[in-house]
Design goal:
With about 700 residues, this protein is mostly helical. It contains 31 helices and four strands.
């Protein structure tokens, strides 16, 4: 029996028993491969902690001040990632020897073939794999200028060093792929492997090796790893410092104040807190476990079914990846791929994210009404006046958004300044004050978190490189256009399926890179004609929802483990709750105004002034938001089967169709959908009143009969 801890609110009132740190750790290790790390204690642990901290400081320095060419800067970055990666990730997951002496703090190298992991021990083959990755990368960095001058001749059979150059490239790629298997997972490796085989079968061997390893702009050192080293790593370190300021607890308390007392309050708290915490995190599974360890037990105690409680947390935490400003660090990649400023990407994401969480909020509200659930009593909730003195915890986020919005400073500079503000906030916060130890721990956490993202970005670069080298993108476009007969809706559906399959079990950043390389060009092709911004948001959304879409729904499985519910049932519930994520992308694909793009005035007025046109455009956006929200409400009610009371199957179908009509652009469809929704809501309302009246008459008759 594991020890349990109890969650307390601001008044130190017991709300619900929550899983212990051991329970949470076991869930994370089961569903988040990046958490399965080698165990170091004593002096080796201190040395590796300092190494990770130094790596974080090095990354901040390079991204701020380095003028080195990409071939030098990126190769050294990847080499350091390989070193730290193999120091932390063993060959097998959850395979530790229970007989190890925990008091032994010496460093060991094992020379056997045993794959069990031991405390303070690294096997000889991991050292070999580490050097296989580091030596070629460092060699390339040292000889970068001569290799660049040789260009394609590097991998030409006529080159005297042909076998050496080919061997170095193969060694580095194999080392990185093995590290990817350990810390990211097999799904993305399967995609890379399949594309590599296709590339080797259709393109000259030397050309493939050159494009994937020696070329800059394609392959290993393409946009994903460049953006990771330049922007993402600094924001990961910022997130590590922000977590140590105690902002997660602040978000949960704020969510409790906003929605805790309403019907089914704990579920609404989960939706709001997960949205807020997810803004600065890059892991759906990590978000699910972090906030779910508190909110899921609260939801179960309130009366929600375990599978529903786990599904709400999984859907909400996954939605954190599409919540501005950081969006799981993918916003920086989106800005690079679309060629627009980062702040524009963050602004474009606001309305779709609000609609997504509104859909989840409606689902949990209707479920609460259906089950007759109450909220948490106000006596057991934090008071806003007690939260006000902690508002300074938001300072790092406010500074970050302000600096980036000003469009004067670089993103690296903005993130670095925000890190400094987070440190100051941590020093001020007497409850969770940042000490020297916590400062180093934050740098260490940032360095360790970078490994998974960097390796995933490296693999995404290989995917993009293979597609570019083989010309596969044009073949995929031709195939989808042929299958869809040039119609937009079938093309969107086919692209959605492709995104969900390719996104299964892949981290947010790598997920988007793969989507941008494989799926986005399909939608932006002249035959389909979706605007580039809409296409990239479309593929990003459907890549993310793979985390809650069966069969590989890692976030949902993590939620089910905490809720002690059937995993597959939890995954299907999460898909149903997050229905907005499957609808909103279609809305902005057909109507870019939802992304503030190509906005037409609500009515056309000849010779109107620019101010009037702008007002009419704002009215058009407002109308789209209102109709979309009403439509999502209708679809959510239809899937839940409850409005004022249970809805019959036929009316559920009609209600769903009415909701979909509200989301299809056009006055006619809006009016049809509105008529259907208002009719069913009115009918339900009067039937509910009649049922209550009949029930009251029966009660009065029984009372008279008993006299």
């Amino acid at each position: 029996m594991t020890e349990k801890t109890t969650y307390m609110d601001a008044n130190f009132t017991k709300l619900e028993e929550t899983p212990s740190a051991l329970d949470v750790s076991s869930v994370v290790k089961k569903y988040d491969r990046s958490s399965n790390q080698r165990i170091w204690t004593g002096l080796p642990s201190q040395v590796i902690t300092l190494l990770c901290a130094a790596f974080s400081l090095y990354c901040i320095y390079v991204t701020m001040f380095s003028t080195a060419i990409p071939e030098v800067r990126l190769n050294i970055f990847i080499a350091l990632v390989v070193v730290i990666g193999y120091l932390h990730y063993p060959i097998r997951r959850n395979n530790f020897d229970e007989n190890d002496d925990e008091n032994d703090t010496r460093f060991h190298i094992s020379f056997g073939l045993n794959t069990k992991s031991h405390i303070n021990t690294i096997p000889w083959y991991d050292i070999v794999l580490m050097f296989m990755g580091v030596v070629p990368l460092v060699y390339f960095a040292i000889n970068a200028e001569s290799i660049i001058q040789l260009a394609l001749k590097v991998t030409s059979p006529r080159n005297p060093d042909y076998y050496q150059m080919i061997s170095l490239a193969i060694m580095a790629l194999l080392s990185l792929m093995e590290l990817c298997r350990r810390c990211v997972g097999i799904p993305i490796l399967c995609v890379v492997g399949a594309l590599l085989i296709y590339a080797l079968c259709s393109v000259r061997f030397g050309k493939v090796v050159y494009d994937l390893f020696y070329s800059t702009g394609d392959g290993l050192r393409s946009t994903p790893i460049d953006v990771c080293a330049k922007y993402i790593v600094v924001f990961i370190i910022f997130g590590a410092f922000l977590e140590r300021t105690g902002i997660s607890a602040f978000f949960i308390d704020l969510a409790n104040i906003i929605a805790g007392a309403s019907a089914g309050g704990p579920a609404k708290v989960a939706v709001i807190s997960s949205a807020l915490c997810g803004m600065v995190s890059g892991s759906s599974v990590g978000n699910t476990v972090t906030t779910g360890s508190i909110t899921i037990p609260m939801m179960k105690k309130a009366g929600y079914r375990p599978e529903f409680a786990g599904a709400v947390e999984a859907a909400s935490s996954t939605g954190g990846q599409i919540m501005p400003p950081i969006m799981g660090a993918a916003a920086f990649l989106m800005a690079e791929y679309m060629g627009v400023p980062y702040i524009q990407v963050a602004v474009l994401a606001i309305l779709p994210a609000v609609l997504y969480f509104a859909g989840i909020y409606v689902s949990v509200h209707l479920e609460a009404k259906k089950l007759g659930l109450k909220g948490i009593s106000r006596e057991n909730l934090p008071k806003f006046r007690e939260l006000l003195p902690r508002m300074y915890l938001l300072a790092p986020l406010v500074v970050l958004v302000s600096l980036v919005s000003a469009n004067v400073f670089t993103m690296q500079f903005s993130a670095t300044v925000s890190i400094g503000v987070a440190i100051l906030v941590g020093i001020i916060n007497k409850d969770q004050r940042i000490s020297v130890k916590k400062f180093i721990e934050a740098l260490e956490a940032g360095g360790k978190s970078t490994i998974t993202v960097a390796v995933a970005c490296a693999m995404a670069g290989l995917v993009a490189g293979c597609i570019t080298t083989t010309g596969l993108a044009s073949e995929l476009i031709a195939m989808v256009v042929h299958l869809s007969a040039g119609y937009v809706l079938p093309a969107l559906v086919l692209t959605m399926i492709c995104c969900i399959i390719l996104g299964m079990g892949v981290p947010t950043t790598a997920n988007y890179c793969i989507m941008a390389a494989v799926c986005a060009p399909i939608l932006t092709s002249p035959a389909i004609g979706i605007p580039i911004i809409c296409a990239h948001f479309f593929v990003f959304y459907f890549g993310i929802v793979a985390d809650i879409t069966p069969p590989v729904a890692l976030a949902a499985y993590a939620g089910s483990a905490i809720a002690k519910a059937p995993p597959m049932r939890t995954a299907f519930n999460a898909t149903k709750i997050a229905i907005a994520a499957f609808i909103v992308p279609y809305i902005f694909a057909f109507n870019p105004a939802l992304l503030f793009s190509n906005v037409e005035p609500i009515v056309q007025i000849e010779n109107a002034s620019p101010f009037v046109i702008q007002c009419l455009q704002i009215m058009e956006i407002a109308l789209i938001c209102i109709t979309s929200f009403i439509g999502i409400f209708g679809v959510a009610a239809a899937l839940n089967g409850y409005l004022f009371f249970h809805i019959k199957p036929l009316f559920r179908v009609i209600l769903a169709l009415g909701g979909l009509c509200m989301m299809v652009p056009g006055i006619t469809t809006d009016l049809i959908g509105l008529f259907v929704l208002v009719s069913i809501c009115t009918m339900q309302h009067f039937q509910k009143k009649k049922m209550l009246s009949d029930s009251q008459d029966i009660d009065e008759a029984e009372a008279l009969a008993s006299r």
